[in-house]
């Protein structure tokens, strides 16, 4: 007869083996919930589906209006407009300054606002007046270091394309942007020269390769080889031709919509990669290669540029921010703290809007 201690030992070993055997599939099922994901958040499928439907309508409408204009062989009877696309997740703190910028120019512009759905601050009175034509567009949540910021900009472009065939330029700005010149100056700057898109396109950034592999090694291939990958500013002024090009794109978008690896968060700025790469690959001669929005990166923190404080707002600052390395003057600037509104309004008529 086997000793009881030996029997007990055998039984314990059997139970331990059974427990380990059963725990493997349980751990396999629970691990994704217990461990942090390897990638940053991605775009929900429902958002992607609704966006694609919107983009198709915008493309069809643009094709239809182009074909109609060609068949009539007549110049457009209405003056071209600038569509200002506000991408914001806070209230529009500088609305009074923009209102003064837009004053008496309602026939030459439209305003579209993509606000965080949980926020939806009321539009300033003049923004929402019939003559002003400012409006919120149906929006989706956005998150830094994710392709949701690309989706929001494409959504704004699509709504502006659908809304008014007179929209000829599409200027993306943020809640921290301010104008640096009068509306007349900005309008003349855009329309007195051959139509080109003003978007920064950089091929020699020191961190280019790190940004390229933010989704993983070779993930961008074959659509985007490294030698065609570009970086640039998030904010731009696109021609209508290029706005249609952006909302029509599917080939590059399937790469840039992929979430970055969590360990590459510090190199993940999809909105600074997608637009310059796409336009440089499809129509480099149609782009200037630089932006019209001035940003100060001299003391950036965690990917954020310098934030101007009220004590920095002086006439000399505005004059300095206008200067560029090209023959074009900067038209807009960021990033300004909300508390800068009062000092900005004090010099609005005498400096900012005086050319």
Automatic annotation (TrEMBL):
Domain of life (superkingdom): Eukaryota
Record keywords: Glycoprotein, Glycosyltransferase, Membrane, Transferase
Gene Ontology molecular function terms on file: glycosyltransferase activity
Main location: membrane
Keyword Transferase applies: yes
Compartments reported by the entry: Membrane
Protein name (Swiss-Prot/TrEMBL): Core-2/I-branching beta-1,6-N-acetylglucosaminyltransferase family protein
Source lineage: Eukaryota, Viridiplantae, Streptophyta, Embryophyta, Tracheophyta
